[in-house]
Amino acid sequence: MQLTYVKSGELKNTLENARNSSLDFIVLSAGALFLEKKITIERLIEYLGQCVRILKNGGLLFVHGRPDYLPELGVYLDEHLNFKYWISVDSTIHQPSNGLPSVHAGLLLFSKGEGRFNIKQTRFTHQMCSACGKTLKDWGGKTHLMNPEGYAISDVWKDLPKENNYSQISNPLLDTILRLIDFQPPKKKQELLEEDFLQSSFSVKGLIAPKEGVSTFRKSISEKQNQYLLPGFVNKHKSSKQMSKSFDEKLFDVVQQGDAIDLLRQYPDNSIDLVFADPPYNLDKSYSSYNDGLEDKSYLEWCNAWLKEYTRILKPTGSLFVLNLPRWTMHHANFLNKYLYLQNWIVWDAMSEPRGKLMPAHYGLLFYTKDSKNFTFNYHKFERIDARYYCRRASCIRKRKKAGDDDKQILTDIWWDIHRIKHKRDRDYHPCQLPEKLMERIIQLTTNKGDIVLDALAGAGTTPVVASRLGRHYIAIDVDDYYVDIMRKKLQEIKVNGTVLRQSTRKPNSKYTKKELQLELRKLASELGRLPTPNDVVEKSSYEVEVFFDKFPSWGKALKAAKLEVGRD
Length: 569
Hints:
Blueprint (H helix, E strand, L loop, with lengths): L1 E4 L2 H10 L5 E7 H8 L3 H14 E11 L4 H9 L3 E13 L7 E10 L11 E2 L26 E2 L3 E2 L13 H10 L13 H6 L5 E5 L44 E4 L2 H5 L7 E6 L18 H18 E11 L1 H11 L4 E9 L12 E8 L14 E3 L7 H9 L5 E3 L3 E2 L20 H11 L5 E4 L6 H8 L3 E6 L2 H17 L16 H15 L5 H7 L4 H7 L3 H4 L1 H6 L4
Parallel strand pairs: 1-9, 2-3, 2-9, 4-8, 10-19, 11-12, 11-18, 13-17, 18-19
Antiparallel strand pairs: 3-5, 4-5, 6-7, 12-14, 13-14, 15-16
């Protein structure tokens, strides 16, 4: 791998003089450029345009910095390259002037063209609970599937040493980036003739800039603890002079069915304390009546329309939260930066289905306010949470707390302690239902009792249900009458019982467990010295092969434990 480090003063000329399609990857520290040269967004976008030009087909571009300016850069790159990940890097804590203390440094990853995505699965060492000694990740009875080399990393990097990754790229961060890169030679080494191999000039070429932005080459430079604010931003609302407007009481504590944008227009300016949205993710999810597969442009235009209404109806002291996948969150932030103040890009670290070379765990939760300083913020209620070096197993929590082992840490903008809904008993028929704990934190953090909470894409109704239970007024809107009916029934239960009652669900007894079958395949792999096939099961196992196909969606899923035995990922 050939690495070229370029100083900030030489970067412009280096990029302009580089040949088209000449580099395999580029690592660009926007944070260091902003700090070193007081560069503008416009100049940095010019640099990115040159990066796009000189990357090879299949090339990788990493852009590093803070969440206040990265969205604008990401939106530009999204028009020219393939968005892959917004990686969140847990870094040294710093306190913006308002909002949550921040530890979130961002790392954008884009690829060029339609070629192979040239990264490989990379692992971090397993982290152990300081109380019980088990892994921090609760495998839920699936410890037989743990890889002894460590866990496959996601797009939330919490286990690097805590360093300043805002205005520089720390050595551990750069090392991890370089470990990810996986460009393959045109042929496998063993397939080359000896003379071909000796003559082969294949080499991966990469550029890292600016050189001063890599901690190897300089001492850490601290940034000023300023509120996230883009250069040239103008507060168009002048919210300190605005008055909250009241409206007909019939318009709150209601669930309305219809188009969100049309219904939002009936609410006056400056009238809602908290507006929240968890829109469909434009991934062809199976909603009851919503088309979650819009073209990108149409999807973003639709989102901008209801976000504009959200900014209009938000009180001067109010807060706006929107949750989405990082690619769309980036576009939302770029739009909202024109109208509101960014307090935090919160990272909800919530692993979904494990897949891909980086496990998708990052959900972007934007926190905006109309006034930069004067907004409802009850941080004291959540300031201290359980330390992250404890696991979340209920038995461990009970035992250690009883023994007085109960260390705390402050709540930051990486939320790792709230899990996705795991069990069907807690879920309605909705593809992206949110856990109530997430909404409890948001609502209690930014509203008081008697305040009004609005969700115009309310789905299964987590927002109005939690708001009602916590003594807030609610406004819920959804286009689908099926979900509207679910919400109304839940809210009636809250009114009568104080909670939503769910029936217990029991799985039917199965003759064999998944673990039992996976361990059988692992035993066969040990005997065979390779991964077993269905024919091997027929010939050598006491289990019928049909049992495996009934229990697992694919043969690959059944072989998860066996792959550990033969040392394959």
